[in-house]
């Protein structure tokens, strides 16, 4: 079973890229972020024609998350992150697919720091931490994947000294990610590639992709039953070089059936 996460940076504008990648990689489950489309504009017909069922949580112009399942319909278990009834951002969705509980998230960017957006990011992270403590104890395999907007260590960012004041590299945010791992979650990419330089995002500016000047901000966290089934964890770097592509790369893990 291949489970992937992909910040598409606009599902309609990048639809040809998404469909091409789906055809080439053939993932069984996909978490999408930054749909940048309201619910009624989600391209469900094209997704279904590609062989995928889908659930989605859209928002006009911003945010938006979805879960796709090859040859199946995801069974939605949660829409939106609990803990704040006034939070209208579409950033979390969760479903059961073929015996695996999958959560797809798009954590707030938080810039500029300090400021209201950074405080919102910290509050959102705290709510996520509370939910994931609950999910970790699930006896079934649980995978929480998406754009976490955090580089956990200096090894996860090109030239870390340039990011000291950025919300994605703030000590409070990195500590929150460490807090998730302390619950028992496994960082799948680091589990299988402990010492490698791995990036999942490359800015459109300054020729970042060609220079391999990137960030690792798209993560897979697995509970113990999912970790026991972990076979591979990879980044589809070549997709970042396609025409009219997202600034993120698809990331995927393979679990034993």
Automatic annotation (TrEMBL):
GO molecular function per UniProt: double-stranded DNA 3'-5' DNA exonuclease activity; metal ion binding
Site positions for Transition state stabilizer: 149
Domain Endonuclease/exonuclease/phosphatase: 4-248
Cofactor: Mg(2+); Mn(2+)
This protein's UniProt keywords: Hydrolase, Magnesium, Manganese, Metal-binding
Residues reported in the UniProt entry to bind Mg(2+): 7, 34, 147, 149, 247-248
Active site: 106, 147 (proton donor/acceptor), 248 (proton acceptor)
Coiled-coil ranges (or none): none
Pfam families in UniProt: Exo_endo_phos
Biological processes, Gene Ontology terms: DNA repair
Site (Interaction with DNA substrate): 248
Stored CDD domains: ExoIII-like_AP-endo
Enzyme class at the top of the EC tree: hydrolase
Similarity comment text for this entry: Belongs to the DNA repair enzymes AP/ExoA family.
Protein name in UniProt: Exodeoxyribonuclease III
């Amino acid at each position: 079973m291949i489970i992937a996460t992909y910040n598409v940076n606009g599902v309609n504008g990048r639809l040809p890229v998404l469909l091409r990648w789906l055809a080439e990689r053939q993932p069984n489950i996909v978490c999408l972020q930054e749909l940048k489309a309201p619910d009624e504009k989600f391209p469900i017909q094209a997704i279904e024609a590609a062989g995928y069922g889908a659930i989605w949580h859209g928002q006009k112009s911003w945010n938006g998350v979805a879960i796709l399942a090859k040859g199946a319909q995801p069974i939605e278990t949660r829409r939106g992150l609990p803990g704040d009834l006034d939070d209208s951002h579409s950033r979390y969705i969760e479903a059961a697919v073929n015996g695996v509980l999958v959560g797809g998230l798009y954590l707030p960017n938080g810039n500029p720091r300090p400021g209201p957006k950074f405080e919102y990011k910290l509050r959102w992270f705290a709510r996520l931490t509370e939910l994931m403590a609950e999910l970790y104890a699930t006896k079934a395999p649980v995978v929480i994947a998406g754009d976490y907007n955090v580089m956990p260590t200096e090894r996860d960012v090109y030239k870390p000294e340039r990011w000291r004041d950025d919300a994605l590299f703030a000590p409070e945010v990195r500590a929150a990610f460490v807090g998730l791992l302390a619950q028992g979650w496994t960082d799948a990419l680091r589990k299988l590639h402990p010492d490698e330089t791995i990036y999942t995002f490359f800015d459109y500016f300054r020729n970042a992709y060609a220079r391999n000047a990137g960030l690792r901000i798209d993560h897979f966290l697995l509970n113990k039953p999912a970790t026991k089934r972990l076979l591979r964890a990879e980044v589809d770097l070549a997709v970042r070089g396609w025409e009219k592509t997202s600034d993120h790369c698809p990331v995927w893990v393979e679990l034993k059936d």
